[in-house]
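sorry for the late reply, my laptop died twice this morning and i had to redo everyting from scratch. anyway the thing you sent over, i finally got around to it. pasting the sequence first so we're on the same page, its 61 residues, then the predicted structure underneath. double check i copied it right bc i was rushing
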Amino acid sequence: MAQLKVTLVHSAAHRLPKQRKIVEALGLGRINSSVVLPDSAATRGALFKVAHLIKVEQVKD
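ok and here's the structure:
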């Protein structure tokens, strides 16, 4: 299964509460923090909601 590396590049402060919760649920805390997540429909949906705050890269297995 493919993996996605997600990096927070913009702060979630002063954003909608729902977007802040999504960033927290993804495991991102501070700017430039990264996390590797599985490439699934649920993950893609969450990433789509906060696409303006993050950078996504595909990780080679």
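Residues 17-25 form the longest helix (9 residues).
thats about all i looked at so far, will dig more tmrw
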